Amino acid sequence: MDQAWEDRAAAAWARFDDYPEDEAAAFRAVIDALVAELPEDSPLGPFEQACAWDSTGHSDKAVPLYREALARGLAGYRGRRARIQLSSSLRNIGRAEEGVALLTPELDGPSDELDDAVRACLALCLSSLGRDREGLSLVLGALAPHLPRYQRSMANYARQLVEPEG
């Protein structure tokens, strides 16, 4: 899509918090209007709609739209966002195992600014499955590089949470 559309979509999302909870449908209508401008087979359409449903508390409606966006070829940064958000939505609707399966490969993918979000969401999915030590390990590992001190210690502690004792 062109930059003008991208700018209008970004502006709509920047105003998201201006909508009271009881006006969630009005926000989704703004997103739907933007999506209506896209080519019919664009992966951006279902992605933006999934984000709108998700952000207004409807993970169940977001899941199939995220899947559709990915199936249509949503890739790159937005594709990674879609996998993170889909995993979160799956966890919210009681399908955390699918979220783990979707996000685990992201740990070995190309690194970007979403790495910590991948780990945080994966940690929540793991926790929902009773795998709290693995989740805590991911979160500590993500946090360690941001600490002003103790980076090495925290990274080691994170590893020790999941390594077999020997």
Key attributes of the depicted protein:
Serine Threonine Protein Phosphatase 5, Tetratricopeptide repeat, 68% helix, 166 residues, mainly alpha
Structure explained in plain terms:
With 166 residues, this protein is mainly alpha-helical. The protein has one domain: Alpha Horseshoe (Serine Threonine Protein Phosphatase 5, Tetratricopeptide repeat). The chain contains nine helices and no strands. Helix 3 packs antiparallel against helix 4, helix 5 packs antiparallel against helix 6 and helix 6 runs antiparallel to helix 7. The longest helix has 17 residues. The mean pLDDT is 95.
Total of DSSP H or I helical runs spanning 4+ residues: 9
Query: What is the number of independent domains?
Result: 1
What would CATH call the homologous superfamily? Tetratricopeptide repeat domain
Distance between the termini: 55 Å
Briefly characterize the structure.
The protein has helices at residues 3-14, 24-36, 44-55, 59-71, 76-92, 96-103, 115-128, 132-143, 151-162. The protein is an all-alpha fold and 166 residues long.
Give the topology, please:
Layout: H1 3-14, H2 24-36, H3 44-55, H4 59-71, H5 76-92, H6 96-103, H7 115-128, H8 132-143, H9 151-162
Helix pairs in contact: 1-2, 2-3, 3-4, 4-5, 5-6, 5-7, 6-7, 7-8, 8-9
